[in-house]
Amino acid sequence: MLKLPNNKKFIFTIIDDTDDAFSPNIDKVYDVLIDNGLKTTKTVWVFPVRDNERSKGDCLQNDNFKKFILKIKAKGFEIGLHNVGSGSYKREEIINGLKQYKEIIGEKPNIHVNHSYNPDNIYCGPKRFSFPFNIIVKYLYSSYNNFSGDIKNSKYFWGDLHKKTIKYSRNYEIDNINTYKLNKYMPYKDKIYDEFCNYWYSSTFAPNQWMFNHMVTKKSIDKLEREGGVCILYTHLGYYYKNGQVDQGFKEMISYIGKKETGLYLPVSDVLDILNEQKEKIKIKKYLPLVKKFQLEFNSLKTRIKYRYVKKIDDYHFKKSNLYNEINIKK
User: Fold this and answer.
1) Closest to 213 in 3D by CA, of 239, 255, 250
2) Mean of the pLDDT values across residues 17-25?
3) Which residue from 176, 174, 177, 249 is spatially nearest to 213, judged by alpha carbons?
4) Among 42, 88, 248, 256, which has the minimal tally of Cβ within 10 Å of its Cβ?
5) Is 322 helix (H, G, I), strand (E, B) or coil?
6) C-alpha distances out from residue 313 to 45, 208, 233, Å
7) What is the DSSP string of 24-37?
8) 94: which residues sit within 8 A by CB, 6+ positions away?
9) HSE of 328, CA atoms in CB hemisphere, 13 A
């Protein structure tokens, strides 16, 4: 059992992928978190979207969005990086983006999440998996390839900057509210990716409100509390505002979570720092064992297949829904 600060029993936090986040809509979603005492992590883009056929959302060049980001940062939320922008950004642009990020936010990003099909993604696509799972990923997601942020002779290379700047990078996806239960090594290191990455963490897979409402229930949160667990939930909060209303399921569950005085509600980097300290005390290895890596790769791929081809509620299906289209009509 984890020994948490202030005798807390469990942790719940969110890593918010910035896709589809527009101000003032996203402000309303964060008001729910603020009103219920949760502090989480919001990723951002520095520059405007370049691949409009694939992605959308505000960036730090937008004054209203920048004000929103600085407001939540002042309230204790963490700001992270979702690459410097959506689309194709070369090394010099990435260097400039990191510089502007620091000038605007006041500090370097500590946490990073790769974005979609960006060619500057770090150790992304099939590279994230070992044999035979890398072959399966190539087959199932044939276009999800050709990422070169970690290749030195690439025009998109920024691996050296990533290593110097980013402490925590997102990796395997978990089909369980208790992220920690399936990966007690996190944050962990991986020798294969050591050259350009530091620590890795897993996340509970809930990219949209369909998935959130499936994964986050009173029953699952009560179980998380009983288990003394840790949930690092990955989602796109930019989806959660429609027709002048924040998603009702989200509001109800954040209220339910916030009322639990046994919970610790900190941004992701703070949570990972706590877990890292715990690892050192109980002498858990820094590097992920090969057997555990194989298990996590299998479970991560199984999670993706389950929600893409069986339950059909991942983003591939969500973005084809009337709900998603209505959200974007209102933006």
Assistant:
1) 250
2) 97
3) 249
4) 248
5) helix
6) 26, 8, 16
7) THHHHHHHHHHHTT
8) 83, 84, 120, 156, 158, 161
9) 13
User: Cα separations (Å) of 231 from 2, 43, 85, 114, 263?
Assistant: 13, 18, 27, 20, 11
Structure confidence by residue, pLDDT tens digits, 253-263: 999 999 999 99
CATH number at residue 274: 3.20.20
Mean pLDDT of the region 58-83 = 99
Category of 5 on φ-ψ map: left (φ > 0), alpha (ψ -120 to 50) or beta: beta
Query: Encoding tokens for residue 120?
Result: 């500057």
Pick from 134-143, 179-188, 210-219, 274-283: least confident: 134-143
Looking at residue 104, what is its pLDDT?
99
Task: Using a pLDDT cut of 70, give the percent of the chain over it.
Answer: 99
Q: What is the number of structural domains in the chain?
A: 1
Residues 119/155, Cβ–Cβ less than 8 Å: no
What is the domain extent for residue 114? 5-330
